[in-house]
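We examine the record.

___
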Amino acid sequence: MFIKLLIISVILVGIALAGLAISLLIKPRGSFPETHISRNREMQKRGIRCAQDTDLGCKPGEGADGCAGCSLH
């Protein structure tokens, strides 16, 4: 019973990975979405520039220029 479940799980994970690979190949400029905050357009639209700044409560208008003014960066 365990072997059947393991085989089915491996097949399903393989199908999911194959689907991801195929979608990346087919899409024009196929690539993974940008997840780093400083280069993510959607985060920039919301005014979020650095996760460490956000956690500390730093704001770019308070003399810090995004992550560059943060002591943690």
Remarks:
- The longest helix spans residues 2-26.
- The mean pLDDT is 74.
- Helices lie at 2-26, 41-45, 51-56.
- Residues 2-28+37-62 form one domain.
